[in-house]
């Protein structure tokens, strides 16, 4: 009994000692120690379960006095003790349910690991799913995506504004020249009256149009400012690999009396090679390889495609050469043609059945200096080129081939037409055949649909007579051919 | 400035109205990018919705942005808006169904 009295304060002291594993493990240890010391006293508690021992041991801290009495009692009064113990359990339950539960878990933690050490190896530590981690860092891919989108939007706005400023700068520097030459500057084709809008048509974020009309020697002039796609980030990145430059394309359409019949082109070698393959008229009329313009004083970087030498001599007068030499870096291509029909069209089923429509046209393609990094000031440097365009319009009106040249040109055109007809001969025959069959079928249907039997018979007879006549004619022709052959 | 410095080259009676060039005459000059990107965007957003792939949905958003940036001003805005909305809905649905963050392919 006295030993138990001594043990209790010892127990209390041990409980007071700090332990990293927690006081509850201590209690366990203490419990085991106590069992060693005095098996009898704690025997019944140990047998029942761990809980009661835990609860009895945790009891001492809050209420040392009442718990000591059941512990001190002898074995004879064991039943009373348990009853008392159990009462205390009930009280404890009523009072500190949560605390006991907490103690239970903590107690079992250490116990489990001690009793079953093998389980430690098979314990799998699952990662907490990222979306439950409550940290923004796990969403870094999404943040990257959104940042990319924001960068795209920023680039779109900046690129759009830059293109718009460049277009406006071009128009401001050229406005005076255009307005002094054309009655109508700027038209979008929608307004009822032909009044100058005085501004560019925006087709895209990177393409601007301007239509000028109302001048001698020409029908109209369409100017296209084809800027780089600065508003598209993908394009900007692609341009870092392969730099290209902004272009100004001018297309002057002429009336029939404004131009004589010739086809001519001058420009950078690369452009000439490309145009000769792509353009319908250049491939048909200018069959030879691009020639050097050194004879006229042009730099080596430029080449000439011409229908005949006389045309080149006529076009390349001193002023033209002067313009071209001074701005050779800005000139991509200059193309004069009376047979212009655009690029070669790829056909799905053989050639078209008739020649493509042609229009007398002057085409100019100029490169804006700066190779992409253009500033609005660079647009002023294109003004002399516009002067060249105006000069060309007037010049072409005055340029007339001599008799020999004219004959050659007419022969060329006849040759091209003949070639075309030959190529399409088979197609045209087929087309004619189908048309004839269609007619026959339509007639037969008409006869069938005719309700009156009398009229039906008459129509049938008429059709038969017509067929007979055709057969006779054919036979006659065959006979004639046979006679001729003989 | 003009070649005929004596007389005014402008002629009021020779005005021709602007006719927008038809697309039939030069199909090669047309830029196919906005149409392709539109189609791609729709395909990716459908993939993202059906197969619950987050990266598909994000690519669809990008495609519709690129299509918008390259589009012609004459094009229908309704088409643009519909592809936008489809791609954004694909992204939102993928995240509602599975709020886990996207895992990189590496």
Counted up, domains of chain B total 1
Shape of chain B: rod-shaped
Distance between the termini of chain B: 65 Å
Work out the largest interface and the residue count of each chain.
A-B, 51 and 37 residues
Q: How large is the count of helical segments of chain B?
A: 3
What is the N-to-C succession of helices and strands of chain B?
HHH
Could you say which structural class the secondary elements and strand pairing of chain A correspond to?
Answer: alpha+beta
User: What is the global morphology of chain A?
Assistant: flat
The ordered string of helix (H) and strand (E) elements of chain A is HHHHHHHHHEEEEHEEHHEEHHEEHHH
Uncertain stretches of 5 or more adjacent residues of chain A: 18-32, 49-88
Mean pLDDT of chain B: 85
Helix content bin of chain B = 40-55%
Share of residues in strands of chain B: under 5%
Radius of gyration of chain A: 51 Å
Protein model, in words:
The complex is a heterodimer of chains A (486) and B (106). In chain A, α2 (23-37) crosses α3, α3 crosses α4 (50-58) and α16 runs antiparallel to α17. Chain A contains 17 helices and 10 strands. In chain A, strands 1, 2, 3, 4, 5, 6, 7, 8, 9 and 10 form a 10-stranded antiparallel sheet that branches. Chain A is α+β, with helices and mostly antiparallel strands. With 106 residues, chain B is mostly helical. Chain B has one domain (12-97). Chain B contains 3 helices and no strands. Chain B has helices spanning 33-51, 54-70, 77-97. The A-B interface holds A 129-131, 138-142, 145, 148-149, 152-153, 156, 176-177, 180-184, 187-189, 194, 202-205, 211, 213-217, 219-220, 222, 229, 231-234, 342-343, 387, 390-391, 393-395 and B 1-4, 8-12, 14-20, 25-26, 28-29, 58, 61-62, 65-66, 69-74, 99-104. Chain B: GO terms for molecular function: protein folding chaperone. Chain B: It is found in: Membrane. Chain B: Pfam families: ASTER (PF03669).
